[in-house]
Amino acid sequence: MEIMKTQDSIFANRPAFDVAKKILYGPKDVGFSPYGEYWRQAKKICVLHLLSNKKVESLRQIREEEVVHVVDMIRRMQSSKGPVNMSEIMITYAYDIACRAVLGKKYSGEEEENKVWKLTRESSALFGAFNVRDFFPGLGWLNWLTGMDAKVERHFQEWDGFLNQVIQQHQEGNNDLLNTLFSIQKDETNGFELGMDEIKGILMDMLGGGTETSFVVMEWAMAELVKSPEKMNRAQEEIRRIVSEKKTVKVIREEDTYRMSYLKAVIKEVLRLHPPSPLLMPRESMEETRIQGYNIPAKTRVIINGWALGRDPELWKMADEFQPERFLSDNEVDFKGHDFHYIPFGSGRRICPGIGFALSSIELLLANLLYWFDWKLPGEKQPQELDMSEASGLTVCMKNQLLLHAALHQE
Ligand code: HEM
């Protein structure tokens, strides 16, 4: 609270990362930009134009079409009786939605892997790799020697080539974020100055910031529910009760999810137990200050362990257990950055601007998956046997892919 609220203005900087500088055009994105005038402008563009409630709402057709696509696919797969690879289905869904919403079209086909997924995965690996220049600037030449610089340069060229091609082939008039950025660029009255590097940097945040993270929430949600059949029943009963009030259903629409309070509690509980970015994003102090009696020099890097806060037994009852009910009885606790024991999206000036975008696609897919199908582990495996180990990485997904048996629900 001291860092993210009381002294937020001192700790609102991000450390400078060598990889971010090279592959994010300076950096000219929002997430890694140093605190200052450019960051303020770019964040404002995200909050007011790209990720506002109104914009998110205007993209609902994309979400509904992609959900129908997923449900149809599982329907076809379940008839063959084999297990369904839910991890693969849900990550493809997250990337398809992001690509359509941001760039106007999907970049995956039946045969080919989604290009944005491939590039984002490679970027994450480079961000996660130890970079000598970040810690010992004087030894930066080692990066040249080990081939790190060449690798980063090659990766940047691939991203840049891809984005240039997307921009060249892009259709005007579509309701996607790239067109919104172009109209902001053209409008001289709004005071924003956007060059091509700035547009490409912001696009990379929109593509990379919300895909893996949203996927992780959906993956853990399905895993936790399959592991606790009585919670799964409760979620399904609520969804089926609300939807049964309608006569014909092809897809559960977004407005149907507004009243699904148990489903919302499930998602909140997943964000508590499995925050997709467990260590949030690092901050850096901009001047010397004091915290709880300690002197903190300027340029101190701060890492906040959101995962540990969510599981602290002094802050939560039955801290390690999956209990969505806790958010029904205490629905005051929210992830909007005011409750400092629960900050999966961060807090303060640097809080995530994509909460609404993420939740809308997560809720809609989960509601449909739980409505149309009954789920269990493949074969004779019992729910408690599901391996809940975490993989290591910047975003923490399940260690093993989630394979489930789906059966079309019969009334
Ligand atoms: C479940 C999904 C998501 C989670 C858990 C998540 C989490 C986070 C966290 C922890 C931060 C750092 C906050 C801080 O430093 O206090 C962050 C920042 C950010 N997120 Fe998200 N995020 C999600 C979805 C999204 C989506 C969908 C987008 C955009 C389409 C997005 C774009 C960003 C950006 C641009 C920032 C940087 C903000 C800044 O530095 O000012 N995120 N997110």
From TrEMBL:
Keywords: Heme, Iron, Metal-binding, Monooxygenase, Oxidoreductase
Entry superkingdom: Eukaryota
Cofactor(s) of this protein: heme
Record-linked InterPro entries: Cyt_P450 (IPR001128), Cyt_P450_CS (IPR017972), Cyt_P450_E_grp-I (IPR002401), Cyt_P450_sf (IPR036396)
SUPFAM superfamilies: Cytochrome P450
Pfam families: p450 (PF00067)
Positions annotated to bind heme: 352
Annotated GO MF terms: heme binding; iron ion binding; monooxygenase activity; oxidoreductase activity, acting on paired donors, with incorporation or reduction of molecular oxygen
Family: Belongs to the cytochrome P450 family.
Name of the protein: Cytochrome P450
Native source species: Dioscorea zingiberensis
